[in-house]
Amino acid sequence: MELLKNKVLQEGKVLSGKVLKVDSFLNHQMDPVLMKEVGREFTRRFDGERITKVLTIESSGIAPGIMTALELNVPMIFARKQKSLTLREDIFVEKVFSFTKQETNEITVSRKFIQPGERVLIVDDFLANGEAAFGLARIVEQAGAEVAGIGIVIEKAFQPGRRVLKEAGYRVESLVRIGSLEDGQVTFAEDGE
Amino acid sequence: MELLKNKVLQEGKVLSGKVLKVDSFLNHQMDPVLMKEVGREFTRRFDGERITKVLTIESSGIAPGIMTALELNVPMIFARKQKSLTLREDIFVEKVFSFTKQETNEITVSRKFIQPGERVLIVDDFLANGEAAFGLARIVEQAGAEVAGIGIVIEKAFQPGRRVLKEAGYRVESLVRIGSLEDGQVTFAEDGE
């Protein structure tokens, strides 16, 4: 997605060989026109997948998630992150480890919002190790629903997230794939597999 | 806003005399078409205010915030909530007390995203005691910018938020005003003052 590549080149800040800061348009300040285009592009890529719901995770997934849900004309759910939790029967819970923050969070979704047989599109802002996307996928499957696909705004292709998710059988579509952040430079990876 | 009133009546759950649960369309699952209408309505109400930026707070403010920013064609920022924080020079910080959760959070915004002279529209999902909106307003003023107005999706008019914000000189526009949640029933308050 050219618009997004240009934004990454113009405004992304390479903080290390692994960390790209995009807080001017995706993670803190958000560009609503870009988010709308992100929603359109996911809708185009997952055309024909009969999606009934979009699932994302707070907080940075919500804007691309709601724009995708608007284009698809289906509801969106955002999973909540919590440090720890009293067990409750009315929610799905999965543990998700964050390599960046070196901590485990519990992510939760109310059982009433995902029904058996639904086809759920998972949307997230970043893909690195795939832990968050995997946690969301496990929640969809706990509900007896199907993962229609995983839509990622920015993939760090030099980390194992895509491989791990594909090996588990999920279709992953990333709008921008970063091949490397070495020497303070963003290099894009080829699209696709 | 009739569409929103109907949604509150059909799907809102009164949990107590003070708590209305709207997790099927605003706080957990979100209705994107409704959020788009919310954005349009705020844009209509704040027409002529020369707004340069929308400011909201994670997580439930993000969807109404981004839709409003899209209609206004300006960037959106979401403030982050944290339990406690090491002081940093590059961020604005305000303390916000939550009566619901009986805890104080620090809310933060990067200094680089609000410039002196900007006109900022604050958007949030709920107004009760006004603590969050006030914290966001203080951040705007720390930046040397102006609060163009405060747009609230659902106001609990039986709590003091609106009065407190108006006494401080802010313009408050709520799309739905709840007058009472007594006896498990939603009663709407009149629009306006």
UniProtKB/TrEMBL annotation, chains A, B:
In the record, the note on similarity to other proteins reads: Belongs to the purine/pyrimidine phosphoribosyltransferase family. Xpt subfamily.
Q: Any idea what this protein is called?
A: Xanthine phosphoribosyltransferase
Where does it mainly reside?
A: cytoplasm
EC number from the UniProt entry: 2.4.2.22
- According to the record, the segments passing through the membrane are none
HAMAP family linked to this entry: XPRTase (MF_01184)
Oligomeric form and interacting partners: Homodimer.
Q: What NCBIfam families does the entry give?
A: PRK09219.1 (NF006671), XPRTase (TIGR01744)
**Top enzyme category:** transferase
The pathway that the record names for this protein is: Purine metabolism; XMP biosynthesis via salvage pathway; XMP from xanthine: step 1/1
Q: Could you tell me which residue ranges the Phosphoribosyltransferase domain spans?
A: 47-157
Localization: Cytoplasm
Residues binding 5-phospho-alpha-D-ribose 1-diphosphate? A128, N129, G130, E131, A132
Q: What does this protein do?
A: Converts the preformed base xanthine, a product of nucleic acid breakdown, to xanthosine 5'-monophosphate (XMP), so it can be reused for RNA or DNA synthesis.
Protein's UniProt keywords contain Secreted: no
Q: Which PANTHER family match?
A: HYPOXANTHINE/GUANINE PHOSPHORIBOSYLTRANSFERASE, XANTHINE PHOSPHORIBOSYLTRANSFERASE
